[in-house]
Amino acid sequence: MASPTPSAPPPSHASPTNTTTTTPTLPAPQTFDILPPLHDILLRLLSSSSASSAAALQQQQHSQPHSQSTLLASDNADTSLSSTLSSQPQPQQQQQQPLEIQQLAGEVSRVRNRIRAARRAVEALPDVERSVEEQEDEIEELRGRIARQRGMLAKMGGG
């Protein structure tokens, strides 16, 4: 007959908190990288609106004579918008093309899907449902356990 060891606590006294030391597998960082695609969509929309405003400006120039100061002001505005757009990094050639309003729903849907995937990845992590107070209680319990273990080691080593 095997008797329980005196140093092991009975099963009824086991701690209800999760005390495993295994590190959970975290999602890839790219899962949460949502801002660059959103930024690209906005840039493409801006370039689309600047291209259409430039076409409208050219059409106005041919139909109505403008004063020199009006032309210079509109050219400066187009130049500043173009320089702002061109100074932004654009990794793919397809994303440099202007985005038409008909294409917006599809592009935004891709970003929405990435957000959903990131949300699912976070919800799949262990202990996400635990409150901060529960986590702080567990930390204090673990600190107490470490202090007791250090005390035991000191008694054994110090003799």
Q: Could you walk me through the main structural features you see in this protein, from its secondary elements to its overall organization?
A:
The chain has 159 residues and is mostly helical. It is 60% helix and 0% strand. The chain contains four helices and no strands. Helix 1 packs antiparallel against helix 2 (68-87) and helix 1 (35-63) runs antiparallel to helix 3 (104-123).
Give the secondary structure arrangement, pairings included.
Layout: H1 35-63, H2 68-87, H3 104-123, H4 132-158
Key features of this structure:
disordered N terminus; 159 residues; mainly alpha; 60% helix
- What is the gyration radius calculated from CA atoms? 31 Å
Described by the principal axes of the CA atoms, the overall outline is: rod-shaped
Helix percentage: 55-70%
Beta-strand content estimate: under 5%
Q: Termini, distance in Å?
A: 34 Å
Largest sheet: none
Helix count, per DSSP?
Answer: 4
Structural class by SSE content: mainly alpha
Write down how many β-strands occur, each being a DSSP E stretch of 2 or more residues. 0
Q: Kindly report the average pLDDT value.
A: 73
Low-confidence stretches: 1-17, 66-86, 88-95
